[in-house]
Amino acid sequence: FKDPLQDPALAAIFEHVHFAYNSSLIKGDDNTKIMHGIADYMKQHPNSYVFIEGHCDKRGPAAYNFSLGANRSNSVRALLIQEGISPDHLFTVSYGKEKLLFNEDSEEFQKLNRRAQFKIFEKQ
Questions:
Q1: pLDDT of residue 17
Q2: Are 121 and 51 in contact (CB under 8 A)?
Q3: For the purposes of burial, counting CB atoms within 10 Å of the CB of 86, is it exposed (0-12), middle (13-18) or buried (19 or more)?
């Protein structure tokens, strides 16, 4: 699996999906657009497999955040399945608050930590 952010064409498709505090619901036009773009990409590339990572901000107990991160990655997976993507091509993991993008306390930075991000594999 590779990080799509290392490839400009893939980075434009596999952007981070962001979540509200203490939520695993996928909301907002930006997130909807990202999810449709990922689904479209996967439909056009049937040999692609996606690893969905669930992440949280640094607040709260580690066990709770691992659960919330799992709920976030599974919400993304469920929506992609609803969009017609094979469940066999979607894998999930939770990192909770273990892989923060930012360690700052401001809400602006905490919001960026609450995300699902992706790794992709293209089977030859």
A1: 98
A2: yes
A3: exposed
Contact status, residue 94 vs residue 54, Cβ threshold 8 Å: yes
Q: What is the pLDDT of residue 105?
A: 87
How far apart CA 80 and CA 75 sit, in angstroms, is 9
CA distances from 2 to 49, 75, 92 (A): 10, 22, 15
pLDDT confidence band for 10 (50 / 70 / 90) = very high
**Residues whose CB is less than 8 angstroms from the CB of residue 8 and which lie 6 or more positions away in sequence, other chains included:** none
Mean pLDDT on 19-31 = 96
Q: Is 124:47 a contact under the CB 8 Å cutoff? A: yes
> How crowded is residue 12: how many other Cβ atoms within 10 Å of its Cβ?
12
Res. 1 pLDDT band, cuts 50 70 90: confident
* Helix or strand holding residue 10 (H, E): helix 8-11
Among residues 75, 92, 7, which one has the least CA distance to residue 41?
Answer: 7
What mean pLDDT is predicted for residues 46-74?
Answer: 97
Report how far residue 83's alpha carbon sits from residue 3's, in angstroms, rounded to the nearest whole number.
22
How is residue 96 written in tokens? 């909770």
